[in-house]
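My hope is that you will study the record closing this message with an eye to the fold:
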Amino acid sequence: MAFVIGSISGEIPSDTTFLLEVVCKHTQVLALNGRQFNYMLHSLMNILEKGWLIGLYRGLGPTCIILIHAADIFFMCYESSLRIDVENEQSC
C-alpha cells in the first residue's frame, strides 16, 4: 500500500509543477545565450510558438519515473522505520 501511495504522491506534484519548471529552465537557458525575457509569460509564448504543447511537456516521462521511484523509496522506508519503532516501544 505504501508503494501505491508513494507513486501517487510522487506523480501528482511533478505533473502540476512540471510546466513551471520547463518555462523557468527555458528562460534561464535563453538568458545564457544573451536573449532576455521580461516575464515568464513571454518565455511561455516562445515555447508554444516553437513546439506547441509537446514542447511544454517534453521530458515529463523520465521525470515522473524518477520522482515516482524516489517517493516510493521514501514512503517504504518511512513505513518500515515506523513499524520498527512501534515494535521497539512495545517490547520495552
About this structure: The chain has one domain: 2-91. The first helix runs from residue 2 to 32.
